[in-house]
């Protein structure tokens, strides 16, 4: 029998529906793949027994009308899962077993899927290479020396290696789109407020957003439809009618106006990134879209703004890890304060500590106006750049990242060079907009590169449609050799 | 501006993170390079710009003041590193 896992989610769902494959067969096939891919280190926790039980339950009483009928899914270990350990990639949560389920994963399970395991990620989603995880580096299936991107690196690696038919990640500054780009897969950061943040380990609450990571655009639409929706428990959740993204997917983009921002370039950007962008423009133009040059003048200030706003929010959010109510506690401190200090020092890794210190400093007495308030003002200007441009265009096309996947260890000694990896993805989070990374080609070394489509708030359908048309005409095929098994 | 070691130790105190003396040097270097990067924002005049406080075009919802949850003490205590029947236990605070 042909490999039942080396397919799109859509095709797998079709195979389940037409009874070509049972949920149990599918689950067993993924378990086998996962067990032979330990080298990739994509999983922190596996839930095989539980998954096989759920698969059996489905096969005994199948409901084929669901969006994800009998589909096993692994998810980023930032989503709280009831009775299954949730670590956020941190030592400080190495023993945390939530007694509740995040809304987004609950939505997935309500649509017929079930948990296969929890995927490695950068500690508290702070990183661009999955090298800050307490549970070790994740390897990119594209090459054994390459990072899978971050922070959703376990997610991108597992997806590209056929260890899950689709997955979900979170994106605070590019953590879905950059790993998608590095692994030749599709990643969508939805509009802020479209997917509930309830039950997701918080990093920077005004920027965090969960979203799908998939092999195709159609899969992405199916997953978005399954996971999104209004949630009372998230005060920033948008109350709107649910959309049928997969049913409404259309590949006709004639007449759409696509903005090309002149600021999305960096010094020493590999020529392939530019060439790929040109190729993307040509594909959309040939499909009848109109290209319009635009300017987003404050783009270069997005990263510095982000490195005030995100650490500030993180320092507040991570204050809860005190060793008292849950998580790791140091046995070193002799009084309460010392217990806090030792717990946090031993529980957090270097990058997380760095960001907590930055955040604490920019919010501290006497510095608030100079840093945090200043950043909130610049954030307004960045949002205004997008608002002004979107008066005359439907979507924006840019490269997803300034380079392809880099080598493990290449950027770990220089935090700023690591941060620069998110230069094209961060502005979107600051403005709360949806953005899609689509695999589009490879560089000289044969490593995948992605292009990014940015939409207006709540215009997910339109960027998915453009992506759908693009995908059909781009001819990109992710050729990954399974060297690890 | 630049951060010196004393300042960093003070901020670490505020953040309740003990910093290894041996690591203060490299932390100072890293944080200063990050702040140099952040301070590009000073090129911009933002005197007349309103700070962005929410990216959503909606105000916070109100809800009825009703109890919707509760009686889950055991669930809450379940993950505690140290508890005593119905309380979290911490090192002695008062003599």
Q: What does this protein structure show overall?
A:
The complex is a heterodimer of chains A (485) and B (95). Chain A is α/β, with parallel strands linked by helices and 485 residues long. Chain A has a single domain, classed as Amidase signature (AS) enzymes (Alpha-Beta Complex), CATH 3.90.1300.10. Chain A contains 15 helices and eleven strands. In chain A, strands 4-6-5-10-11-9-7-8 form an eight-stranded mixed beta sheet, with helices on both faces. A three-stranded mixed beta sheet of chain A has the order 1-3-2. In chain A, strand 10 and strand 11 form a beta hairpin. The longest helix of chain A is centred in the C-terminal third of the chain and has 21 residues. The model of chain A has no long low-confidence stretch (mean pLDDT 97). Chain B is mostly helical. Chain B has a domain of 39 residues. Helix content of chain B is 35%, strand content 4%. Chain B has three helices and two strands. In chain B, strands 1-2 form a two-stranded antiparallel ribbon. Chain B is flat, with a radius of gyration of 23 Å.
Please give a quick description of this structure.
With 485 residues, chain A is α/β, with parallel strands linked by helices.
**Straight-line distance between termini of chain A:** 19 Å
Judged by helices, strands and strand pairing, the structural class of chain B is mainly alpha
Query: What Rg of chain B is obtained from the alpha carbons, in whole angstroms?
Result: 23 Å
Largest sheet of chain A: 8 strands, mixed
As residue ranges, the low-confidence spans of chain A are: none
Strand arrangement, major sheet of chain B: 1-2
| CATH homologous superfamily grouping of chain A | Amidase signature (AS) domain
Helix content of chain B: 25-40%
Number of domains of chain A: 1
Give a short account of the largest sheet of chain B.
Answer: 2 strands, antiparallel
Assembly status: heterodimer
Please report the total strand number of chain A as a whole number: 11
**Portion in strands of chain B:** under 5%
β-strand number of chain B: 2
Portion of residues in beta strands of chain A equals 5-15%
At CATH level 3, the topology of chain A is Amidase signature (AS) enzymes
Strand order of the largest sheet of chain A: 4-6-5-10-11-9-7-8
Count of individual helical segments of chain A: 15
Shape field of chain B: flat
User: Which series of helices and strands of chain B comes N to C?
Assistant: HHHEE
* Individual helix count of chain B: 3
């Amino acid at each position: 029998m042909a490999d039942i896992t080396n397919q799109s989610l859509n095709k797998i769902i079709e195979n389940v529906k037409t009874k070509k494959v049972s949920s149990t067969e599918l689950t067993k096939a993924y378990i086998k793949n996962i067990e032979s891919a330990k080298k990739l280190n994509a999983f922190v926790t596996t839930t095989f027994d539980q998954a096989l039980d759920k698969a059996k339950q489905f096969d005994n009483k199948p409901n084929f009308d669901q969006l994800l009928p009998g589909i096993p899914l692994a998810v980023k270990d930032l989503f709280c899962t009831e009775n299954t350990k949730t670590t956020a990639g941190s030592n400080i949560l190495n023993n945390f077993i939530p007694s509740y389920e995040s809304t987004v994963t609950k939505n997935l399970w309500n649509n017929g899927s079930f948990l296969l395991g929890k995927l490695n990620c950068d500690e508290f989603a702070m990183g661009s290479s999955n090298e800050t995880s307490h549970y070790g580096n994740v390897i990119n299936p594209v090459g054994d020396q390459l990072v899978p991107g971050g922070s959703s690196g376990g997610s991108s690696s597992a997806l590209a290696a056929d260890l899950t038919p689709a997955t979900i990640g979170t994106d605070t500054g590019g953590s879905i789109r950059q790993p998608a780009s590095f692994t030749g897969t599709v990643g969508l950061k939805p509009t802020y407020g479209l997917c509930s943040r309830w039950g997701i380990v918080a990093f920077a609450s005004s920027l965090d957003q969960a979203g799908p990571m998939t092999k195709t655009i159609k899969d992405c639409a199916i997953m978005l439809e399954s996971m999104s929706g209004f949630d009372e428990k998230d005060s920033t959740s948008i109350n709107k009618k649910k959309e049928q993204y997969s049913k409404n997917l259309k590949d006709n983009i004639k007449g759409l106006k696509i903005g090309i921002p002149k600021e999305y370039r960096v010094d020493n950007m590999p020529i392939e990134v530019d060439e790929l962008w040109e190729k993307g423009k040509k594909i959309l133009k040939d499909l009848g879209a109109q290209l319009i040059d635009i300017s987003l003048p404050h783009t270069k200030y997005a990263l510095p703004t982000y490195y005030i706003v995100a650490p500030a929010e993180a320092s507040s959010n991570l204050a809860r890890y005190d060793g008292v109510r849950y998580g790791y506690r140091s046995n070193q401190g002799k009084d309460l304060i010392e217990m806090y200090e030792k717990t946090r020092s031993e529980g957090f890794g270097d990058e997380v500590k760095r960001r907590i210190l930055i955040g604490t400093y920019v919010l501290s007495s006497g510095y608030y106006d100079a840093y945090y308030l200043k950043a909130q003002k610049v954030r307004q200007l960045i949002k205004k750049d997008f608002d002004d441009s979107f008066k005359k265009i439907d979507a924006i096309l840019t490269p997803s990242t300034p380079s392809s996947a880099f080598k493990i260890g290449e950027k770990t000694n220089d935090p700023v060079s690591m941060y620069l990896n998110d230069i094209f993805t961060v502005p979107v989070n600051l403005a709360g907009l949806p953005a899609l990374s689509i695999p589009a080609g490879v560089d000289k070394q044969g490593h995948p590169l992605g292009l990014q489509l940015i939409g207006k708030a709540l215009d997910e359908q339109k960027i998915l449609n453009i992506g759908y048309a693009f995908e059909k005409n781009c001819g990109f095929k992710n050729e990954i050799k399974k060297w690890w098994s | 501006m630049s951060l010196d070691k004393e300042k960093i130790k003070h901020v670490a105190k505020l953040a309740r993170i003990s910093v290894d003396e041996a690591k203060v040097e490299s932390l100072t270097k890293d944080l200063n390079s990050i702040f140099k990067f952040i301070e590009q924002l000073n090129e911009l005049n933002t005197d007349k710009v309103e700070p962005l406080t929410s990216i959503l075009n909606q105000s916070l919802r109100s809800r009825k003041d009703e109890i919707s949850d509760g009686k889950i003490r055991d669930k809450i205590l379940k993950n505690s590193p140290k508890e005593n029947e119905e309380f979290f236990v911490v090192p002695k605070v008062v003599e």
